[in-house]
Amino acid sequence: MSEPKIIDGKAFAAGLRDRIATEVAKLKEENGITPGLAVVLVGEDPASQVYVRSKGKQTVEAGMQSFEYKMPETTSQEELLAKVEELNNDPAVNGILVQLPLPKQIDEQAVLAAIDPAKDVDGFHTTNVGLLGTGSDNGLVPCTPLGCIMLLRDHFDGNLSGKKAVVIGRSNIVGKPMFNLLLKESCTVTVAHSRTQDLPGEVRQADIVVAAVGRPEMVKGDWLKDGAVVIDVGINRIDKPEGGTRLVGDVDFASACERASAITPVPGGVGPMTIAVLLANTVTAACQQNGIAVPKL
Ligand SMILES: Nc1nc2c(c(=O)[nH]1)N[C@@H](CN(C=O)c1ccc(C(=O)N[C@@H](CCC(=O)O)C(=O)O)cc1)CN2
Ligand SMILES: [Mg+2]
């Protein structure tokens, strides 16, 4: 196989942010609306702090309003629920995101259930999960899987129909919504997970492989069908033999390059799409709340 195309998520995300900024300017001019995104960070997780800072910065760069709330590690569930309720009732806030993971004293599902589904720009509320699962276009869709679909649509010129896809991982954040999104594109989808009996055999069938297991370099190149398109959602920090650390995906990139026709790198593939899609979802939420047609981004 010749060298695969490297799917440049970083560049795609930059283009998407430009299109979002254009739509935000139009919303201001034509409708007098400035979309607002509230992000709540509980605790001091260093990676979460970086992500929340980027979200705030990119929100402002797109011309939207950013509201950031930092709450201590010891925050109780009641205190966090009170913050969510305040944001649900704030008319300047069109989108609400509670950064995950949350400290152990807080029940994640209870918090996600408290977010107004119309402001749920993460798409994690069961109302939005149900809308996606029934094939509706009216809900809000989780950012990372929607970013993966945008990259795939771009790669396949909008037509994924009939492709065989395997999603490795069954999380609520990536695996399950990815299954529903691929099904909506008329793919034939298999969801594999830790109890799947012959994972290499399942992967070998697939035209599209989406890896979202959180295990560094688990998917090997010789598992892939020749010409497979590989979307690597994993972001794993591993130690380098010479000291220090580096980021790797769930796919063994070097061996995958020998079989794949296209592949997302880590970093610079799916990761940057997550925040760009969050901004897109904030525009979608603001339009839906105001009865304005949602722009195609
Ligand atoms: N409420 C949510 N919490 C979390 C989500 C989410 O979608 N909603 N996703 C992740 C974290 N995340 C955003 O929140 C996120 C992860 C990764 C990236 C990214 O750009 N990654 C870069 C590498 C970054 C690095 O150097 O460490 C890349 O892959 O190129 C952005 C956002 C968990 N929590
Ligand atoms: Mg799993």
Automatic annotation (TrEMBL):
Q: Which UniProt keywords apply?
A: Amino-acid biosynthesis, Histidine biosynthesis, Hydrolase, Methionine biosynthesis, Multifunctional enzyme, NADP, One-carbon metabolism, Oxidoreductase, Purine biosynthesis
Q: Cite the Tetrahydrofolate dehydrogenase/cyclohydrolase catalytic domain residue spans from the record.
A: 7-122
* Gene Ontology cellular-component terms listed: cytosol
Output the Gene Ontology terms for molecular function.
methenyltetrahydrofolate cyclohydrolase activity; methylenetetrahydrofolate dehydrogenase (NADP+) activity
- Entry-linked Pfam families: THF_DHG_CYH, THF_DHG_CYH_C
Q: How does it assemble?
A: Homodimer.
The family annotation for this protein states: Belongs to the tetrahydrofolate dehydrogenase/cyclohydrolase family.
- Name under which the protein is recorded: Bifunctional protein FolD
Natural source organism: Aestuariispira insulae
